[in-house]
Amino acid sequence: MKILISPVAFLKMRYLLYGTDEEVQAFLIGENKKRLYVEDLLVLEQEVSGTSTEVDNYDISKFMINEIKKGNKKIVEKIIGTWHSHVNMGCFWSGEDEDNIERLGSSIDCVVCIVSSRNDDNKMELKCRVDLFRPFRTTVNDVKFEIDTTTLLDKIVNTKVKSIEDDVVELSSGIKLRISQRKKFVKYIKEAIYNFGEPLH
Questions:
Q1: DSSP H helical segments within 55-94, as ranges?
Q2: pLDDT single digits (tens) 29-51
Q3: Cα angle, residue 29 at apex, residues 24 and 32 outer, rounded to 5°
Q4: Quick one: how far is CA 139 from the chain centroid?
Q5: CA–CA distance, 2 with 37 (Å, rounded to integer)
């Protein structure tokens, strides 16, 4: 079992973790049928502090009703779980996380939960779990995750090629690459995503 996280969702997690010293939570938007894929984060109004965050049930219901009225029923149907930042307190399942999982489990069969925290080196750590509620109740802890860089890399490396002369590829962005450098470039882009917010060398 593995959770695939889009670059957009991953960078939002990093931004929300490093952008404030308050805890923040969000719904995970994506799919949980044929694969576990986190496409985006949905952040609602919430009460936050350095040790807790709470989204009122009324605000959740109000948001969902408004989205359905606006014809955005799909956004509600694509909620697959919850994300929560623990700031500097480490990655573990708090009472808040357990409550959020149970609340979502009343309406969806498979709930994905991700917790983020800054470690001692100020790098982001992620802990993932999956809870199945139907046909039977079970929890899978320490689920592996991977950042889905395929779409991003396809856009950067394989599309909008301006010209190819000898062994040099020029992209419409102005980047020129020797074909032999392609693997190194792909590796650099992947590192840029993982180290977002930190200096790149």
A1: 57-69, 73-77
A2: 999 988 999 999 998 877 777 77
A3: 125
A4: 20
A5: 9
- Report d(CA 177, CA 169) in Å as an integer: 5
d(CA 146, CA 3): 6
Question: At 170, which helix (H) or strand (E)?
Answer: strand 168-171
Helix, coil or strand: residue 85 = strand
Q: How far apart are CA 200 and CA 190, in angstroms?
A: 12
**Residue 111 pLDDT:** 95
Cα(154)–Cα(97) distance, rounded to whole angstroms?
35
DSSP 93-129: --HHHHHHHHHHHTT-SEEEEEEEEE-TTS-EEEEEE
62-77: per-residue pLDDT in tens? Answer: 777 777 777 777 788 8
What's 44's DSSP letter? P
Angle, to 10 degrees, between the axis of helix 182-194 and the axis of helix 7-18? 40
Q: How many CA within 13 A on the CB side of residue 67?
A: 16
The span from the CA of 183 to the CA of 190, in Å, is 11
pTM for this one?
A: 0.73
